[in-house]
Amino acid sequence: VETTTQETLTSRVELLLRPLREGALPRPWRFAEYETEQGVTLRLHAPGRALVVELEAADADRPCFARTERFNVYYSVVGRPSSEPLRREELGALEAVVKVLREREGMLPASETEPVASRRMLVREVRVDRALVQEGPAAYYMNPYVGCMYACPFCYAAHRADFSRSLEGAPIAPWGRWLDVKVNLAEVLEREVATRKPGTVRMSPIITDPYQPVERRFRITRACLEVLAKARFTPVVLTRSPLVLDDLELLRSMDPGPLIGMSIPTDDDAVRAAIEPDTEPVDARFDALAKLREAGLRTFAILQPMLPLDPDRMAARLAPVVEAVRIGPLYEKPRIAQRLTVLGREDILEESWERATFEALRERLEARGVIVNGREEPWSLLT
Ligand code: SF4
Protein backbone atom coordinates (compact mmCIF):
# COMPACT_ATOMS: atom_id res chain seq x y z
CA VAL A 1 0.00 0.00 0.00
CA GLU A 2 1.36 3.38 -1.01
CA THR A 3 0.10 6.48 0.64
CA THR A 4 0.54 9.88 -0.95
CA THR A 5 -1.23 13.19 -0.69
CA GLN A 6 -2.49 14.83 -3.87
CA GLU A 7 -4.69 17.70 -4.84
CA THR A 8 -8.25 16.76 -5.60
CA LEU A 9 -10.01 16.45 -8.92
CA THR A 10 -12.20 19.43 -8.09
CA SER A 11 -9.36 21.90 -8.67
CA ARG A 12 -8.84 20.47 -12.19
CA VAL A 13 -12.53 20.64 -12.99
CA GLU A 14 -12.80 24.16 -11.56
CA LEU A 15 -10.07 25.25 -13.92
CA LEU A 16 -11.67 23.48 -16.88
CA LEU A 17 -15.09 25.01 -16.31
CA ARG A 18 -14.10 28.45 -15.00
CA PRO A 19 -15.42 30.41 -18.05
CA LEU A 20 -18.91 29.04 -17.34
CA ARG A 21 -18.81 30.83 -14.00
CA GLU A 22 -17.41 33.96 -15.61
CA GLY A 23 -20.03 34.75 -18.24
CA ALA A 24 -19.56 32.16 -21.00
CA LEU A 25 -23.18 30.99 -20.59
CA PRO A 26 -25.89 32.94 -22.45
CA ARG A 27 -28.47 34.69 -20.27
CA PRO A 28 -30.51 33.72 -18.30
CA TRP A 29 -28.41 30.61 -17.60
CA ARG A 30 -25.94 30.33 -14.77
CA PHE A 31 -23.56 27.58 -13.72
CA ALA A 32 -25.01 26.27 -10.43
CA GLU A 33 -22.84 23.34 -9.34
CA TYR A 34 -20.91 20.25 -10.38
CA GLU A 35 -20.06 16.83 -9.03
CA THR A 36 -17.01 14.79 -10.01
CA GLU A 37 -17.01 11.37 -8.41
CA GLN A 38 -19.19 9.54 -10.93
CA GLY A 39 -17.99 11.07 -14.14
CA VAL A 40 -18.57 14.83 -14.20
CA THR A 41 -22.09 16.20 -13.80
CA LEU A 42 -22.87 19.92 -14.17
CA ARG A 43 -26.08 21.72 -13.29
CA LEU A 44 -27.11 24.86 -15.13
CA HIS A 45 -29.97 26.93 -13.79
CA ALA A 46 -32.31 29.51 -15.34
CA PRO A 47 -35.44 30.90 -13.65
CA GLY A 48 -37.78 27.93 -13.21
CA ARG A 49 -35.60 25.53 -15.19
CA ALA A 50 -32.52 23.35 -14.78
CA LEU A 51 -30.28 21.51 -17.22
CA VAL A 52 -28.12 18.57 -16.17
CA VAL A 53 -25.03 18.02 -18.33
CA GLU A 54 -23.07 14.79 -17.96
CA LEU A 55 -19.54 14.27 -19.23
CA GLU A 56 -18.25 10.78 -19.84
CA ALA A 57 -15.15 9.44 -21.60
CA ALA A 58 -15.15 10.12 -25.35
CA ASP A 59 -16.52 7.05 -27.11
CA ALA A 60 -17.41 7.21 -30.80
CA ASP A 61 -19.69 4.16 -30.46
CA ARG A 62 -22.07 5.83 -28.05
CA PRO A 63 -24.51 8.44 -29.38
CA CYS A 64 -24.43 11.70 -27.43
CA PHE A 65 -25.33 15.40 -27.73
CA ALA A 66 -21.75 16.35 -28.69
CA ARG A 67 -18.29 14.79 -28.63
CA THR A 68 -15.03 16.57 -27.88
CA GLU A 69 -11.55 15.07 -27.81
CA ARG A 70 -11.94 13.78 -24.22
CA PHE A 71 -15.67 13.80 -23.58
CA ASN A 72 -19.04 12.48 -24.66
CA VAL A 73 -21.55 15.17 -23.61
CA TYR A 74 -25.09 14.18 -22.53
CA TYR A 75 -27.90 16.32 -21.15
CA SER A 76 -31.33 16.17 -19.57
CA VAL A 77 -33.83 18.93 -18.82
CA VAL A 78 -35.05 18.52 -15.25
CA GLY A 79 -38.76 17.67 -15.14
CA ARG A 80 -39.16 17.22 -18.92
CA PRO A 81 -39.21 13.95 -20.88
CA SER A 82 -36.17 13.38 -23.10
CA SER A 83 -38.50 13.04 -26.10
CA GLU A 84 -39.36 16.78 -25.94
CA PRO A 85 -37.11 18.92 -28.16
CA LEU A 86 -34.71 21.45 -26.69
CA ARG A 87 -35.75 25.10 -26.68
CA ARG A 88 -33.47 27.52 -28.51
CA GLU A 89 -31.93 29.09 -25.40
CA GLU A 90 -31.36 25.65 -23.81
CA LEU A 91 -29.50 24.62 -26.94
CA GLY A 92 -27.46 27.83 -26.66
CA ALA A 93 -26.46 26.97 -23.09
CA LEU A 94 -25.38 23.46 -24.08
CA GLU A 95 -23.40 24.75 -27.04
CA ALA A 96 -21.62 27.20 -24.73
CA VAL A 97 -20.60 24.30 -22.46
CA VAL A 98 -19.25 22.30 -25.41
CA LYS A 99 -17.30 25.32 -26.66
CA VAL A 100 -15.63 25.79 -23.27
CA LEU A 101 -14.75 22.08 -23.12
CA ARG A 102 -13.19 22.16 -26.60
CA GLU A 103 -11.17 25.25 -25.79
CA ARG A 104 -9.88 24.05 -22.44
CA GLU A 105 -9.73 20.23 -22.33
CA GLY A 106 -6.09 20.36 -23.41
CA MET A 107 -5.36 21.74 -19.93
CA LEU A 108 -6.24 18.40 -18.37
CA PRO A 109 -3.34 16.05 -17.75
CA ALA A 110 -2.98 12.78 -19.62
CA SER A 111 -3.40 9.82 -17.29
CA GLU A 112 -0.70 7.31 -16.48
CA THR A 113 -1.53 3.64 -16.65
CA GLU A 114 -0.54 0.98 -14.16
CA PRO A 115 0.34 -2.42 -15.60
CA VAL A 116 -2.84 -4.48 -15.37
CA ALA A 117 -0.93 -7.40 -13.85
CA SER A 118 0.18 -5.27 -10.92
CA ARG A 119 -1.16 -6.35 -7.53
CA ARG A 120 -0.05 -3.04 -6.01
CA MET A 121 -2.82 -1.25 -4.14
CA LEU A 122 -2.70 2.50 -4.75
CA VAL A 123 -4.00 4.29 -1.70
CA ARG A 124 -3.96 8.08 -1.68
CA GLU A 125 -4.85 10.42 1.10
CA VAL A 126 -6.84 13.24 -0.51
CA ARG A 127 -8.15 16.47 0.96
CA VAL A 128 -11.62 17.54 -0.17
CA ASP A 129 -13.50 20.79 -0.05
CA ARG A 130 -17.02 19.32 -0.14
CA ALA A 131 -18.70 16.48 1.71
CA LEU A 132 -22.45 16.32 1.11
CA VAL A 133 -24.04 16.05 -2.32
CA GLN A 134 -27.67 17.17 -2.27
CA GLU A 135 -30.05 14.76 -3.99
CA GLY A 136 -33.41 16.16 -2.86
CA PRO A 137 -34.96 18.32 -0.14
CA ALA A 138 -33.14 17.32 3.09
CA ALA A 139 -31.63 14.31 1.29
CA TYR A 140 -27.90 13.96 0.70
CA TYR A 141 -25.25 11.40 -0.11
CA MET A 142 -21.62 11.23 0.78
CA ASN A 143 -18.65 9.01 -0.07
CA PRO A 144 -15.97 8.63 2.64
CA TYR A 145 -13.70 6.99 0.09
CA VAL A 146 -13.56 6.87 -3.72
CA GLY A 147 -12.64 3.55 -5.32
CA CYS A 148 -13.21 0.21 -3.65
CA MET A 149 -10.92 -2.53 -2.39
CA TYR A 150 -13.73 -5.10 -2.67
CA ALA A 151 -13.29 -5.06 -6.44
CA CYS A 152 -16.64 -6.59 -7.43
CA PRO A 153 -16.32 -7.27 -11.17
CA PHE A 154 -19.95 -6.26 -11.80
CA CYS A 155 -19.59 -2.87 -10.06
CA TYR A 156 -21.38 -0.49 -12.42
CA ALA A 157 -19.69 2.55 -10.88
CA ALA A 158 -16.23 1.40 -11.91
CA HIS A 159 -16.00 3.02 -15.34
CA ARG A 160 -17.34 6.35 -14.06
CA ALA A 161 -14.91 6.45 -11.15
CA ASP A 162 -12.03 5.43 -13.44
CA PHE A 163 -13.00 8.24 -15.81
CA SER A 164 -12.97 10.86 -13.03
CA ARG A 165 -9.57 9.58 -12.01
CA SER A 166 -8.22 9.83 -15.55
CA LEU A 167 -9.16 13.53 -15.68
CA GLU A 168 -6.94 14.08 -12.70
CA GLY A 169 -3.93 12.49 -14.34
CA ALA A 170 -3.73 9.90 -11.56
CA PRO A 171 -2.36 6.44 -12.33
CA ILE A 172 -5.12 4.23 -13.70
CA ALA A 173 -5.04 0.87 -11.99
CA PRO A 174 -7.58 -1.94 -12.38
CA TRP A 175 -10.82 -1.43 -10.42
CA GLY A 176 -10.25 -2.61 -6.88
CA ARG A 177 -6.56 -1.66 -6.90
CA TRP A 178 -6.93 2.03 -6.06
CA LEU A 179 -8.55 3.93 -3.27
CA ASP A 180 -8.76 7.60 -2.34
CA VAL A 181 -9.16 8.25 1.37
CA LYS A 182 -10.85 11.58 2.14
CA VAL A 183 -8.75 12.36 5.18
CA ASN A 184 -10.38 15.71 6.05
CA LEU A 185 -13.97 14.73 5.25
CA ALA A 186 -15.34 14.87 8.81
CA GLU A 187 -13.93 18.38 9.25
CA VAL A 188 -15.62 19.58 6.04
CA LEU A 189 -18.84 17.78 6.97
CA GLU A 190 -18.92 19.50 10.34
CA ARG A 191 -18.91 22.89 8.61
CA GLU A 192 -21.58 21.82 6.12
CA VAL A 193 -24.08 20.34 8.60
CA ALA A 194 -24.01 23.60 10.53
CA THR A 195 -25.69 25.34 7.58
CA ARG A 196 -27.82 22.58 6.02
CA LYS A 197 -31.26 21.32 6.90
CA PRO A 198 -30.97 17.98 8.77
CA GLY A 199 -32.01 15.00 6.66
CA THR A 200 -30.90 11.62 5.40
CA VAL A 201 -27.33 10.98 4.27
CA ARG A 202 -26.69 7.92 2.12
CA MET A 203 -23.25 6.37 2.70
CA SER A 204 -22.35 5.19 0.11
CA PRO A 205 -24.75 4.62 -2.75
CA ILE A 206 -22.10 3.64 -5.33
CA ILE A 207 -18.39 4.05 -6.22
CA THR A 208 -17.21 2.91 -2.81
CA ASP A 209 -18.14 1.03 0.34
CA PRO A 210 -17.97 3.04 3.58
CA TYR A 211 -16.33 0.11 5.39
CA GLN A 212 -13.20 -0.39 3.33
CA PRO A 213 -10.62 -2.79 4.80
CA VAL A 214 -8.54 0.32 5.65
CA GLU A 215 -11.39 1.92 7.67
CA ARG A 216 -9.80 0.51 10.85
CA ARG A 217 -6.69 2.51 10.05
CA PHE A 218 -8.30 5.77 8.91
CA ARG A 219 -11.73 5.78 10.64
CA ILE A 220 -13.16 8.22 8.10
CA THR A 221 -16.66 6.72 8.19
CA ARG A 222 -16.70 6.66 11.98
CA ALA A 223 -15.64 10.30 12.22
CA CYS A 224 -18.41 11.29 9.79
CA LEU A 225 -21.01 9.28 11.72
CA GLU A 226 -19.98 11.13 14.87
CA VAL A 227 -20.53 14.47 13.13
CA LEU A 228 -23.91 13.36 11.77
CA ALA A 229 -24.98 12.06 15.18
CA LYS A 230 -24.20 15.38 16.83
CA ALA A 231 -26.06 17.33 14.14
CA ARG A 232 -29.04 14.90 14.22
CA PHE A 233 -28.79 13.89 10.57
CA THR A 234 -29.90 10.34 9.67
CA PRO A 235 -27.29 8.10 8.03
CA VAL A 236 -28.40 5.41 5.60
CA VAL A 237 -25.37 3.13 5.56
CA LEU A 238 -24.88 0.47 2.89
CA THR A 239 -21.95 -1.93 3.05
CA ARG A 240 -20.71 -5.42 2.20
CA SER A 241 -18.60 -5.62 5.32
CA PRO A 242 -19.19 -6.75 8.90
CA LEU A 243 -16.71 -4.00 9.87
CA VAL A 244 -19.86 -1.90 10.37
CA LEU A 245 -20.10 -3.69 13.75
CA ASP A 246 -17.11 -1.65 14.94
CA ASP A 247 -19.52 1.30 15.05
CA LEU A 248 -22.43 -0.54 16.62
CA GLU A 249 -22.46 1.45 19.86
CA LEU A 250 -22.26 4.75 18.02
CA LEU A 251 -25.03 3.75 15.61
CA ARG A 252 -27.20 2.55 18.46
CA SER A 253 -26.82 5.85 20.27
CA MET A 254 -28.03 7.94 17.33
CA ASP A 255 -31.32 9.83 17.42
CA PRO A 256 -32.94 9.78 14.90
CA GLY A 257 -31.84 6.19 14.39
CA PRO A 258 -29.87 5.22 11.27
CA LEU A 259 -30.83 2.66 8.63
CA ILE A 260 -28.14 0.04 8.07
CA GLY A 261 -28.02 -2.17 5.00
CA MET A 262 -25.93 -5.07 3.83
CA SER A 263 -25.39 -6.08 0.19
CA ILE A 264 -25.87 -9.84 -0.04
CA PRO A 265 -26.24 -10.91 -3.68
CA THR A 266 -26.14 -14.65 -2.94
CA ASP A 267 -26.67 -17.01 -0.02
CA ASP A 268 -24.02 -19.43 -1.35
CA ASP A 269 -20.47 -18.67 -0.27
CA ALA A 270 -18.97 -20.72 -3.11
CA VAL A 271 -20.71 -18.36 -5.53
CA ARG A 272 -19.50 -15.35 -3.53
CA ALA A 273 -15.92 -16.68 -3.58
CA ALA A 274 -16.06 -17.23 -7.34
CA ILE A 275 -17.61 -13.90 -8.27
CA GLU A 276 -16.59 -11.40 -5.59
CA PRO A 277 -13.56 -13.08 -3.98
CA ASP A 278 -12.28 -9.92 -2.27
CA THR A 279 -15.43 -9.47 -0.20
CA GLU A 280 -16.40 -10.90 3.19
CA PRO A 281 -18.08 -14.32 3.43
CA VAL A 282 -21.84 -14.46 3.19
CA ASP A 283 -22.28 -15.90 6.71
CA ALA A 284 -20.41 -12.97 8.22
CA ARG A 285 -22.82 -10.58 6.51
CA PHE A 286 -25.93 -12.38 7.78
CA ASP A 287 -24.36 -12.46 11.27
CA ALA A 288 -23.67 -8.75 11.12
CA LEU A 289 -27.29 -8.04 10.18
CA ALA A 290 -28.47 -10.23 13.08
CA LYS A 291 -26.27 -8.31 15.55
CA LEU A 292 -27.44 -4.94 14.21
CA ARG A 293 -31.04 -6.07 14.51
CA GLU A 294 -30.54 -7.44 18.01
CA ALA A 295 -29.17 -4.02 18.94
CA GLY A 296 -32.51 -2.53 17.88
CA LEU A 297 -31.31 -0.93 14.64
CA ARG A 298 -33.42 -0.71 11.48
CA THR A 299 -31.85 -2.92 8.82
CA PHE A 300 -32.25 -3.73 5.14
CA ALA A 301 -30.54 -5.84 2.49
CA ILE A 302 -29.70 -5.15 -1.12
CA LEU A 303 -29.82 -8.05 -3.57
CA GLN A 304 -28.55 -6.24 -6.61
CA PRO A 305 -27.31 -7.85 -8.67
CA MET A 306 -28.90 -11.19 -7.85
CA LEU A 307 -26.27 -13.90 -8.22
CA PRO A 308 -27.10 -17.63 -8.16
CA LEU A 309 -29.16 -18.16 -5.01
CA ASP A 310 -31.78 -20.37 -3.44
CA PRO A 311 -34.93 -18.24 -2.92
CA ASP A 312 -36.24 -20.42 -0.05
CA ARG A 313 -32.98 -20.34 1.86
CA MET A 314 -32.30 -16.67 1.14
CA ALA A 315 -35.75 -15.55 2.28
CA ALA A 316 -35.57 -17.71 5.41
CA ARG A 317 -32.20 -16.20 6.39
CA LEU A 318 -33.07 -12.60 5.54
CA ALA A 319 -36.56 -12.29 7.00
CA PRO A 320 -35.54 -12.45 10.68
CA VAL A 321 -32.79 -9.83 10.26
CA VAL A 322 -34.16 -7.11 7.93
CA GLU A 323 -37.24 -4.93 7.55
CA ALA A 324 -36.84 -4.31 3.83
CA VAL A 325 -35.08 -5.68 0.78
CA ARG A 326 -34.21 -4.11 -2.53
CA ILE A 327 -33.87 -6.60 -5.39
CA GLY A 328 -32.41 -5.56 -8.72
CA PRO A 329 -30.92 -6.95 -11.92
CA LEU A 330 -27.32 -7.43 -13.01
CA TYR A 331 -26.33 -4.56 -15.31
CA GLU A 332 -22.77 -5.49 -16.27
CA LYS A 333 -23.48 -8.99 -17.56
CA PRO A 334 -20.42 -9.46 -19.82
CA ARG A 335 -18.09 -8.69 -16.94
CA ILE A 336 -18.98 -11.83 -15.03
CA ALA A 337 -20.07 -14.13 -17.85
CA GLN A 338 -16.81 -16.09 -17.74
CA ARG A 339 -16.98 -16.63 -13.98
CA LEU A 340 -20.56 -17.84 -14.36
CA THR A 341 -19.47 -20.28 -17.06
CA VAL A 342 -16.92 -21.76 -14.63
CA LEU A 343 -19.76 -22.15 -12.11
CA GLY A 344 -22.02 -23.63 -14.79
CA ARG A 345 -24.56 -20.86 -14.09
CA GLU A 346 -24.78 -18.83 -17.31
CA ASP A 347 -28.55 -19.30 -16.97
CA ILE A 348 -28.69 -16.36 -14.59
CA LEU A 349 -27.82 -14.06 -17.48
CA GLU A 350 -31.28 -14.71 -18.92
CA GLU A 351 -34.02 -12.22 -18.16
CA SER A 352 -36.35 -15.16 -17.51
CA TRP A 353 -34.12 -16.28 -14.59
CA GLU A 354 -34.10 -12.77 -13.16
CA ARG A 355 -37.87 -12.46 -13.40
CA ALA A 356 -38.58 -15.87 -11.89
CA THR A 357 -36.05 -15.44 -9.08
CA PHE A 358 -37.34 -11.97 -8.27
CA GLU A 359 -40.92 -13.27 -8.05
CA ALA A 360 -39.91 -16.26 -5.93
CA LEU A 361 -37.99 -14.04 -3.52
CA ARG A 362 -40.68 -11.39 -3.35
CA GLU A 363 -43.40 -13.90 -2.58
CA ARG A 364 -41.36 -15.60 0.17
CA LEU A 365 -40.13 -12.35 1.75
CA GLU A 366 -43.52 -10.62 1.69
CA ALA A 367 -45.11 -13.69 3.23
CA ARG A 368 -42.73 -13.14 6.16
CA GLY A 369 -43.58 -9.43 6.43
CA VAL A 370 -40.50 -8.01 4.66
CA ILE A 371 -41.00 -4.94 2.42
CA VAL A 372 -39.69 -5.64 -1.09
CA ASN A 373 -38.65 -2.73 -3.35
CA GLY A 374 -40.77 -0.40 -1.20
CA ARG A 375 -41.67 3.00 -2.59
CA GLU A 376 -42.67 4.52 0.75
CA GLU A 377 -40.19 6.39 2.93
CA PRO A 378 -37.75 5.38 4.30
CA TRP A 379 -37.33 2.43 1.96
CA SER A 380 -37.52 4.54 -1.18
CA LEU A 381 -34.01 5.63 -0.17
CA LEU A 382 -32.75 2.23 -1.19
CA THR A 383 -33.40 2.81 -4.86
S1 SF4 B 1 -18.52 -3.17 -2.72
FE1 SF4 B 1 -19.92 -1.86 -3.91
S2 SF4 B 1 -18.66 -0.12 -4.59
FE2 SF4 B 1 -17.27 -1.76 -3.93
S3 SF4 B 1 -16.76 -2.85 -5.82
FE3 SF4 B 1 -18.48 -3.92 -4.84
S4 SF4 B 1 -20.32 -3.05 -5.80
FE4 SF4 B 1 -18.62 -1.62 -6.24
Description of the structure:
The structure is a single chain. The chain is α/β, with parallel strands linked by helices and 383 residues long. It is 33% helix and 21% strand. It contains twelve helices and 17 strands. The chain has helices at residues 9-21, 88-104, 158-168, 185-193, 215-218, 220-231, 248-252, 269-275, 282-294, 311-318, 333-343, 351-367; strands at residues 2-6, 30-35, 40-46, 49-57, 66-67, 71-77, 122-126, 133-136, 139-141, 145-146, 178-182, 200-203, 234-239, 259-263, 298-303, 324-327, 371-372. It has an eight-stranded mixed sheet, with helices on one face. Strand 8 (133-136) and strand 9 form a beta hairpin. Helix 4 runs parallel beside helix 6 (220-231) and helix 10 (311-318) runs parallel beside helix 12. The relative contact order is 0.09. The model has no long low-confidence stretch (mean pLDDT 91). Iron/sulfur cluster binds at residues 148, 150-152, 155, 157, 206-209, 240.
